[in-house]
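Chapter review: from sequence to fold.
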Amino acid sequence: MADNKILVFPADLVEKIDGSRGDVSRAEFIEALIDNLVKEKSEHKETVGYVTREELSAFEQDMKQLMKSFLDFFVSYGLELGENGQQIELDKFTSKLQGLQKDLGGDSKSGGKATIKWKNA
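The token string follows.
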């Protein structure tokens, strides 16, 4: 014979249980809820993982490649517009980029400097 224990619930919680359980008894309904909750937590623990150093490095390289692709696109787009009467000289473009670097704090004493290597096609 199974041991029976008594749980005391607030009246409003019992009303929620009774309103949601349908034809199932209170005990079966609460047992199903607890089993479902325990199952969800165990499944959630299995999906939590950590990133390896190699995966992080690969992600970093992919992001750098993506940013380079965006930069290549915008530079080529700007050069195409320049052929249509809005010619932007390379020195003027460089000075604009340097001005942006100063605005972003690129001249700080921390020594942070980004460089881009271009491939000639």
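Two observations follow directly from the output. The longest helix spans residues 53-83. The mean pLDDT is 75.
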